Amino acid sequence: MSYFKILGFDKEPFSTSPDPDFFFLSKEHERAMTNILIELRLRRGLSVILGDVGTGKTTLSRKLIQELTGREDFIFHIILDPSFENEGFFWLSLAKNLEINDPIVNLEQPNILGLKEAVERFLFQKGVTENKIVAIVVDEAQKLSESSLEVLRVLLNYETNTFKLLQLVLLGQLELYSKIVNMSNFFDRISFKYTFNPFDLDETREMIEFRIRKAGYKANMHIFLEEAVKEIYQYSKGYPRQITMLCHKALKNLVLRNKFVVDESVVKEIIEEEINTGWQRKNSLAQKNNF
Fold this sequence. Notes:
alpha/beta; Helicase, Ruva Protein, domain 3; Rossmann fold; 5-stranded parallel sheet; 12 helices; 47% helix; 11% strand; elongated
């Protein structure tokens, strides 16, 4: 039997997989999600979300895809690893993933100009003739090369008098900012920009409770005592992924010790073991202000 079944859960509450159903919408995440959906609906073009490792960008991208799935007026694709060898590979990948039905896509060595024209025709057909919204979500966007960013800039030039033909949502680590801040012809096109910061104590507590209840825990007692939550917050610095991993270890500890609540001592023991073995997280890089 899985450890979470022993403790009264239907599902694993603290998996680090980007399950949108377990995504806790903090005020920052909710604001970002709402604004992105508005930008997409208005076809404004480019939204950029920055955040340090473990602040919820990937899960937000999955939540966004979940929101768009099933909407007949949307055509979308998510790029999980935007590491393309060159401009040509990016254009070809884009054409294939959008399932563009054009002979040039199937050529052994399609030329870039032909691919650009095929993509533009596709975007015009879908966006103007069929009145659909075409969106590309790019996760790990800090991996975009200069040539790939130039491809995105060109795509943003495809527009009518009233809207952009392609909607782009970039989610990346903080180093993405240094790549785009001096690209004025790209940076100035960002319609919505936001930076995720770690949770505060209240959000840490709310996230833990949310995931516990989402996993089917029905007991009236708090499985994580307040002092334990404070220890988790102080050590994790409010980073959602670190909170999740600490809580997972704490629940496993309960099963091993035949206990039923996570108290301060349980969390301190886990933290002490991480520190003693040299596995603690280094200082964060998160910036507190939106760019």
